[in-house]
Amino acid sequence: MELTGAQSLIKSLETEGVEVVFGLPGGAILPVYDPIIDSSIRHILVRHEQGAGHAAEGYAQVTGRPGVAIVTSGPGATNVVTPLANAYMDSTPLVVITGQVATNAIGTDAFQEVDITGITAGVTKHNWLVTDAEDIPRVVAEAFHVATTGRPGPVLIDFPKDVANATATWSPPGPMDLPGYKPVGEPDAAAIEAAAELMLAAERPVLYVGGGVLKANASAALLELAELTGIPVVTTLMARGAFPDRHPRCLGMPGMHGNYTAVTAMQQADLLVALGSRFDDRVTGKVDAFAPRAKVVHVDIDRAEIGKVRRPDVGVVADCRLAIEALIGALRRRAGERAGSLDPARLAPWIGLLDTWRERFPLAYDAAPPPGALDGSPPLKPQYVLETLRDATPPDTILVSGVGQHQMWAAQYWQFDHPRTWVNSGGLGTMGFAVPAALGAKVGRPDRMVWAVDGDGCFQMTAQELVTASSERIPIKIAILNNAYLGMVRQWQHMFYEERYSEVYLSPDLPDYVLWAEAMGCVGLRVTSPEEVLPAIEKANEVDDRPVVIDFRTDSMEQVYPMVASGSSNDDIVVHPSQQGLAR
Amino acid sequence: MSVGSAPSGPGQVVPMPLAGGTQARAGKRLRHHVVTLLVENKAGVLVRVAGLFARRGFNIFSLAVAPTHDPRFSRISIVVDVESAPLQQVVDQLDKLVNVVRITELHPLNAREAELLLVTVAADAVGRAQVIQLAEVFGAKVVDVGAQALTLRLASAPEAVDDFEEVLRPYGILELQRTGRIALPKLGPEA
Lengths: 584, 191
Description:
The complex is a heterodimer. Chain A is globular and about 70 Å long. Chain A has a six-stranded parallel β-sheet with strand order 3-2-4-5-7-6, sandwiched between helices. The longest helix of chain A has 18 residues, at 320-337. In chain A, strand 6 (126-129), helix 7 (136-148) and strand 7 (154-160) form a beta-alpha-beta unit. Chain A folds into three domains: 2-169, Thiamin diphosphate (ThDP)-binding fold, Pyr/PP domains (Rossmann fold); 189-360, Rossmann fold; 382-553, 3-Layer(aba) Sandwich (Rossmann fold), CATH 3.40.50.970. Chain A is an alpha/beta fold. Chain B is an alpha+beta fold. Chain B has two domains: 20-106, ACT domain (Alpha-Beta Plaits, 2-Layer Sandwich); 112-185, Alpha-Beta Plaits, CATH 3.30.70. Helix content of chain B is 26%, strand content 36%. In chain B, strand 2 (60-67) and strand 3 (73-81) form a beta hairpin. The two termini of chain B are 15 Å apart. The model of chain B is unreliable at 1-26 (pLDDT under 50). Classes of the chains: A alpha/beta, B alpha+beta. At the A-B interface, strand 14 of A face helix 2, helix 3 and strand 4 of B.
């Protein structure tokens, strides 16, 4: 079949099963936008290319399918570098297509030319510059294969304008030409046996669950493993929802702002079974002081993660689901041979200790005084907003967040009982992630309610994508926890810079978030007191034909607790002031 | 030694006992390991490899690259400073590059190494004979002769190249270019 390169590209995307792309046209990508008119693929026109990238990430995180973005060359391409870096850190499958100047102009400093394959080499799994239209079906097939297999991640296809305009024969992609790409899958049997032995011998074990469990769709297997062994579970920021928070063995989130029990359970453990987690500095605190008595089993699909930070006693390079299933098999065989080896009573002292901590050190904040107790304006606590939102939305609601204090409160106070219901920027910490990611999430899962919790600083970075949401009738809901500050930076200046607040004040009402929301075609609401919280949320929940933005005016002074100061040992976790005198 | 899917990882280093006299020199050499990469012969591959070293803070001591007998592939020989990063981490990160087909990690004691040197040495009528004599001792060739200088070429084991450079230094080295070392595994008895 004779097609132009541009038609060939779109046909190749259709062949990959792509249903939606996020993008914004421009000079070099113009040829590709013509066949989009005739394609079955839905194109969502964003207002900034960064929005296209984050929307594709939100789509990918909730569906498990690769997100696709199309942008033009030069500034269009550089604007999508942040989403690529974000997706690389969080292992999100993304296929980004950038326009490029014609091949004979490459290297001449042509208008809107940048070396985007060079720029993105460090933030993509791989990238391709297409120089021959005949290569398009193969390159697209390779790009989707690399993005979605092994440890998932973003890839980029740079597409020169003359290649888009050339005529070529389209045929279904033949064999891929990737002699150096060998993703692993099955775990090594001997390593699984060794890991199972350690799990049976441990007296204070913890399952340290990371985002890899979600990527591998291993939540059901993890639940079976936890119930078979009775071993308690912590879920990292990237793994919230991989194991249900309502489960009695779920200890919640560890790390810099993790809860006391999750953090201390890892510190006191004699065995950590790391499943798709990477010993991130936000989890370990000071590495030399992290879980000092624990043996480590480390399961990861990326061999380079094994031993990168902490040398494991047993390393398993494998897909998490296959590894967990193999562990279950090995443990069941042992339980058959040695009666009582999985008796829940063996862990009773450990569970008892954890329960003591859970009772003594729950998440805590100073609740607002009852309405009217102060002169008309009791401070609105951000945690109270989140608790109310959590309780007033369906249990399978997708929660999206930006980066900062609001993100940590959301990760702490939400109850995540389902996989792929939590979308956030973990590794890169990209402010402005929430609005476009929520848009993409809602496109991917139109059947679900999608709420974004955002900060006022974050919201100002990417709010323009609410115009996209309004015009495309994508009814997302945004809760701005507006504390008039870059709150997390303020918290660090409060704690570590003697309350010298440098360049963190933003103002609660400049911009006017309600007017801004309405100008972008959304419903805009403002909440200043606790009794207004629930009615506003209920009103927002009823709107399903346009986005809603609620400007929650929250307490500027509120700090995120607990906290492990950067570079400190997790043993030195700072709990809420009301708990600081309690025996540990 | 190729990077496969065995969980134990590629290129396990097996330390070998050393004779007493060579201990000091070998100790210095052991800081450096040669990693040879079979890579796809495509545009930009060298940038990806070098960029990975820069990004991850691994030090490159020297680097040599050329196509293999199969024009689809090139071989890159990199001498890695193993004090800058654990060798296994360097190898595992390189293995993630899609264009890297195979990695062979060579312990210096298990490798046949070679390096090429071109050097221009100050040599007037008086010094010329001495320099040529030294070149003969090392097996170097005179490739150019000027009124006040000689250019010499030596292809040899890297340590011999080091030594040659040292003995020439007092005569005055005007220009010097080394290729960086290349290496292949030593042949075992079964090879």
